[in-house]
Amino acid sequence: MSNTSSNTNAVDLTKLFSRNFELQNINDGTITDITFDQSAVGDVGCVVWDAALVLCSYIDKIRNVVQNKSVLELGSGTGAVGIVTAALGARVIITDLPEIVPFMNHNIQLNQKVLKDSCSALELRWGNKEQMSKVKQIHFSEGVDFLLVADCVYYEEALEDLVDTIVYFASPETIVLCSYEDRELGNKSELQCKFFKKLSEHFTITEIPIEKQDPLYSSPDIHIMEMTLSHQNNKT
């Protein structure tokens, strides 16, 4: 979700439609439905994009790795990725612009029986040092284990702030998972290249091979990148 959105782009909670995501219990095979409401009115954060579902499915495959870990999601929109990650046993903070927070809280409440207070929604404007510092001090004083970013590169004016925010929250132990879909419309492809070029100044970036992703929720035009701070950029 872009830093440039305004209250005119707030999600209309009276025009919602749902999408479900299934989690299977590996012990007894039972299925848990996670429900995400989407809105017919709003900016890019009001629906669940395919790249978010692909990332949800990959996190499901590595559920043992994320259990009991601290997780921060940036530009959460519907909150889908963070909510699934919390349902898998992580402690998750999902974040977006202030006008999106009620929408994220709505989806948290839809799934509260599964989440059991393991997921919270907060306002976080990319590049806002005061907000970033507050979130870090209160919720991630011991660091962020996983930082999630799903299909957030839409507006060039927000690009630098998004990169700065990722770098700010990352520690040498942080794993950043970023998913995105190839798009040829406008300058989206150029923006993605610029985004990862800026991130490569700080991180070692590798792509998760499609054969390691969920066979149902994967596509050649949707990518999951894993990033860790480069040795020369490790913070003390």
UniProtKB/TrEMBL annotation:
User: What's the domain of life for this entry?
Assistant: Eukaryota
**InterPro entries, A to Z:** Methyltransf_16 (IPR019410), SAM-dependent_MTases_sf (IPR029063)
Listed under GO cellular component are: cytosol; protein-containing complex
| Pfam families named among the record's database cross-references | Methyltransf_16
Q: What is this protein called?
A: Protein N-lysine methyltransferase METTL21D-like
Which organism was this protein described from? Biomphalaria glabrata
Q: Which gene encodes it?
A: 106069052
